[in-house]
Amino acid sequence: MSTLEATAGNAQTLTASLSTFAGKLNREGGLPNDLVTDRTTYAALTATVEDLQRAGQHASDLVEGLATGAEDPNTPIGVVMRDVQAGADLKGTIDNLHHGSELLVEDLEGMQHNFLLRGYFKKKAKAEKADAQANESTPASSEGATP
Hints:
Elements: H1 2-25, H2 31-37, H3 39-71, H4 76-82, H5 84-112, H6 118-137, H7 140-143
Helix pairs in contact: 3-4, 4-5
């Protein structure tokens, strides 16, 4: 009998808690209430879920395509993934590009000091300096003005 009374008390407590919880869910402006009563919110959430499903499918298709390509040694990704020599060649190419870029910068720096091109670079530097000074002297009030 005491167990039955305790169970009934627990059921009353549970019922009161559920009632309080349901009251909070039904409060106007809450998400659950909006989902049930506002068709615009429901439609927006439905569209978002559909977009997420499509994005997930596209991502799955992409990963599947990459996996298929990696398995075939005749595809570019398959060659890079499976052929050690191709990977080394690719790394060598990247290293050569980096070294070539450094040499190009060095050559361009040297060209600035060449007597045949020195005048060009001096004129260019002078023009850039004049442009910078002209931009600094422009009044601030005319920057925000509309024509």
